[in-house]
Specification:
The protein has 91 residues and is an all-alpha fold. It is built from four helices and no strands.
Length: 91
């Protein structure tokens, strides 16, 4: 995403809040790195808009609390896909 970092930061924060998105999802949506998203949301945003910062931090806290669940679901899906692939190939 081209443009000013300040504009990007505000757009990122709004995206996170409106969608309950993860840092990874926001990075993919905006075509930037996870590190950039995290820096924008935790550092730049605090200086630009404290109300938006507080809301974005709440989303990040929620995501952090739920990450073990998402990780478990991803692992389950991975192994389920492998099992489905094995069962669909006759020997």
């Amino acid at each position: 995403m081209k443009g000013l970092p300040e504009e990007r930061t505000i757009q990122l924060a709004k995206y996170l809040i409106e969608n309950g998105a993860t840092v990874r999802q926001a990075a993919e949506q905006f075509g930037i790195s996870k590190s950039t998203v995290h820096k924008d949301i935790t550092t730049r945003l605090k200086k630009l808009n404290t109300a938006l910062y507080d809301s974005a931090q709440e989303v990040l806290r929620t995501n952090k609390k739920e990450r073990h669940i998402r990780g478990g679901m991803a692992t389950r899906a991975k192994y389920q896909a492998q099992a489905d692939k094995k069962s669909s190939h006759p020997r």
